[in-house]
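User: Before I run my own analysis I want an independent prediction to cross-check against. Here's the chain; please return only the structure tokens and, at the end, one sentence I can use as a sanity check.
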Amino acid sequence: MANHKSSIKRIRTNDARRLSNRYYAKTMRNAVKKFRELTEKTEAAEKLPRIASLLDKLAKRSVIHKNKASNLKSKLTRMVNAL
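Assistant: Structure tokens:
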């Protein structure tokens, strides 16, 4: 167990942030999975900016790495163009 007040608080904060990050990461994965199931180009083109925005926000908050966000955006854009 931690001995310092600051380290006890850090443990509490880390746990809270870990739960929040897990929630946002899972939400992102579900959104990407649903996006990949789309078959209409118009609908996919409408939703692409929202997915890209979500990925950028998570990369900015360090929930996911910025390169992972870029790779996902690139793959999803290519998918939309191929439809």
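Sanity check: The first helix runs from residue 5 to 36.
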